[in-house]
Structure formats: C-alpha cells, structure tokens
Specification:
Blueprint: E1 6-9, H1 11-15, H2 25-38, E2 42-46, H3 52-64, E3 69-75, H4 78-88, E4 94-101, H5 104-111, H6 115-132, E5 136-141, H7 148-160, E6 165-170, H8 177-190, E7 198-203, H9 210-219, E8 224-227, H10 241-250, H11 252-255, H12 266-277, H13 298-306, H14 334-343, H15 350-366, H16 372-380, H17 383-386, E9 392-399, E10 406-414, E11 417-425, H18 428-440, E12 445-453, E13 462-469, E14 474-481, H19 484-500, E15 514-515, E16 521-522
Parallel strand pairs: 1-2, 1-8, 2-3, 3-4, 4-5, 5-6, 6-7, 7-8
Antiparallel strand pairs: 9-10, 10-11, 12-13, 13-14, 15-16
Helix pairs in contact: 2-3, 2-12, 3-4, 4-6, 6-7, 7-8, 8-9, 9-10, 18-19
The protein binds 3-methyl-2-oxobutanoic acid (KIV) and zinc ion.
The site of zinc ion (ZN) has 7 residues, from loops.
Length: 530
Amino acid sequence: MSDRVYVFDTTLRDGEQAPGYSMNLEEKLRMARQIEALGADIIEAGFAISSPGDFESVKSIAGIIKNATVCSLSRALKKDIDASYEAVKCAVSPRIHVFLATSDLHLEYKLKLSRDDAYERIVEMVKYASSLCPDIEFSLEDATRTDLDYMCRVVEGAINAGARTINLPDTVGYSTPEEIANMVRYVREHVPVSDKARLSMHCHNDLGMAVANTISGLEAGARQFECAVSGIGERAGNAALEEVVMALKTREGKYGLYTNVNSTEIYRTSRLLSSITGVKISPSKAIVGENAFAHESGIHQHGIMANSLTYEIMSPESVGVNKTNLVLGKHSGIHAFTRKLEELGYNLEEDEIKKLFESFKQLSDRKKQIMDNDIIALVGTRDTFSNEHHWKMKNYVVNSGNGITSTACITLEKDGKEMQGVAIGSGPIYASFRCVEKIIKHPFSLLEYQLEAVTAHRDAQGEVFVKISDGKAMYRGRGLSTDVIEASLLALMQAVNRMIDGKVMKSNEIDQVVDTDEGDMLVGHTDKEE
Ligand code: KIV
Ligand code: ZN
C-alpha cells in the first residue's frame, strides 16, 4: 500500500457552511487559487444544487484550477448529481461527491428509508454519477454510527457501482481514535473489493478529536483525508488541514505517510482565510496561531537560543511564518515592493501591483517602517479596487472628546455629485456611521465591528472589519488606515457599496431549508455575506 496520502480540502463547502465564513465569488476564487498553491489534491468547491450562487462558484473554480481535482457535493439524487456534473465538467480533473446517510438513526428519522431501500438508492445513484464522470466519491454520512456489516454491504455496492473513493465520515464528531481505526480495518478486512477504492476520513471536531481521529484512520489504511483550512466547518469544525499535514510531516518517522502539501504555504493560506472572512484565529491555535512559535518564558528562550529543537518541534519557516520581516519604507521603489510581494507569495498582475504601490506610498508618508503584515493587509484590501463603487468617501471631520457629544461631518460622492451630512452620536464611530446612513438614505444595522492593529508601535495601521445588514442579507467590509476613524469609514463604505450594488454576487443567498420529497434536507446558509 502506498504511503501517499491525498488531501481533500473542503474549506469552500463544509467550511463555508459554518456561520461567519460565507464568501462571495471573488473571495472563493482567491481562496481556491491559494488552496491549489498549497498543494491540496482535491478541492471541494461547493454544493452545486444548493443555490444558483453556489453553482456559479463551483463552475468558476472548476474553470480556473489546473493542479487539483475539483469536486461538488450532491445528495444521492439525480438532480443533485446533474447539477454537480454541470458545474465541474469543465475542470481538468472533475469529481462528483455523492452522499447518503447510512446509520439507522438517520435512515429512520431523517430519510425514512429502510436499509435495503437506501442501499438500492446508493447503488443506483453511484452508477448514474459514474456514467457521467469517471471520478466518483461516495460518503456514508454518519458512518461512525452505522452498523458495521451494513456499512460493508454499502461500501461494496458503491465500489461495484463505480465509486473510486469511499468516505467514512464521523459526521457528528462522536468517535474516538481507536473506534475509527477499528472501523477502517473492519471495512478493509470484510469488503473484498475495498482495495479498488481509496478510503477517506472526514472527521468533525465536536469532542476535539477530529485530527487524532483522522490520523488514526490513516494509520489503519485510509489514504485520503477531508479537512479545512484552520479547521473551519459545521459546528466545531473539520479536521484542520495544517494540523494533520504537519503531524504527518513532523512525525514522518512514526507514521511513514506523506502528502503533496507545500507546508510553507500553510500560514499564508490561513491568513488569507481570516483576512477574507474577518474571523480571527485564536492565538493559541496549533500551527497558525499567533503564539504557535512564540517563546515567552526565559527558560524557553534560553533553550531555543542554544538549540531550537529544545522547544521547537518544527520551524516557523516550515509553515511559512517568516521571522525576518524585512522592512520597507518611504524610499523603497516599486522593484523592492514587487520583490517583497513575491517573497510573501503574492503573484499579482502588473496593474494590481501598481495600484497597491500607490497605497504603499501613501502609507509610507504616514508610517516610517512598513512591515510584512502591513503589506499583507494592503493586499487584503485590493479587491476594493476592482469594485464599481457607488459611494466614495471624499472627506470627513469627526469631533470627539470627553464630556461632549461626538459629531461627524462627512462628504460622500456618487455619480460625480458630492453630498454632505452631519450627525451626532455617543462616540466618533457612532456619529460617523449615522452620518453615512443619513447621506445614503439606506438604513442598515451594524452587526459586527472589529478593530485590530496590523503591527506593533504607535504608528500602526488599524484594520477594521464591519458586518452590516439591511434586514435581508449581511454585507462585509474591510478598511485599513493609520487613522482608525478613516479605517472604520472605509470598511463601512465597502459594506454599504456591496449592499447597494445590485450586481453583487449572489453566491450565498439566504437559502431556505428545502424539504425534498425524498425526505432528505438541503440546508443552506442562514446568512449572506458579500
Ligand atoms: O460531515 C459529513 O458527513 C459531511 C458529508 C456530506 C461528507 O460533510
Ligand atoms: Zn462534514
């Protein structure tokens, strides 16, 4: 049996289903490109039937990814399989991922199907999917609570019907590493054709065991694992891609397994996800958290200086954390700036670099030393350049202090016309946001506001994330400036423009819970962020 383990990334499907992580088309494409650069073997781009937006994004991702298989999820229904096939068929390497629950609990209460009926449906749908596309994966949803002998019957039927990957998910994150290993071994021993398909793990983290369970499945013979960047996903999330990859790499001597992932892309990928979604990584998160390589105590620092192996089991560089943090400044030219972008792993078009360089120059007038994180944050705002803005902020004066009511006087421009407003509030952000609302005459509520310094020191840039809602959907915005009021207003303007712009992506429509005649449910997103 080969030692090569295939990495199936579901950040854009299972991950994106988690509250707060939905992305628009442009964001999904950026994420998919980065996951490709990271070296994932399979990218699950979405659930094509779930909404027109999802269909479009799966199709667009399938069109641009060249070095990974692109996959779409489908219930065991013809219409789902057709939608998935339509969305992925243009991919260099397309895959259809069909699933049906197999535990008695799900069969009886959710699907209202007998074991025999479910078996027949699985065989029929896998055969149908295989008639369209050679690469079919079948998942036994809730596998870890499925009767083992019934599981073997289904696995055998699905393989004989054409499935080339069999996924055994711990859908509810209930299993333990030992149970997972037993399940995988049981299937390998009791399904004579099991070597005709690759077995796969898909572990949820409800009891904090997703990574351990995944690795246990791999040790027992699975050769694909499903995971998400930073471990995002339904409820407590999926196995974190970076944790499984680095466990296999760091403990290669123990496991003897390897992946195709370029581990130096890990940090950038995780950082891109948080910069797109605005959801911060916990500082103590393994591999990609801010403190993952920080050594505060004197004893540890002394040990590290003597020999890094004393307290460091892997180097920060091996996951792409660059400790040198070469500084740029006022006198750096476009060549140094471009080289820095390349060093940070950004391969951008010339006109994008030029626009970013303008922002870099403006920043260098306000800030002496431009650090890597400043540049990464600048790149994170670059999608705002390409948007057709309805409203632009021309200028603002905000007055605030203790013992006075804050006032904001703001001028916005739209279609070449300037409009001015004045508002008061109990603080400068309140007054400014109210002022914008008065000018644009489009009410919204502020659902979330986050402000964070991009680097240390007093001249740091503030990065602001906002989420606003007009009652129908949710819109995100991001702003960056050394002036936190300006950063807040820029973030708000981006969200407002997305709210007003009729052309915004519909990738994450507020999908309803659709009760299908087959008894299965299609649960879409409950929020829409654009
Ligand atoms: O958790 C799960 O069972 C899933 C399947 C659809 C693979 O996400
Ligand atoms: Zn899942």
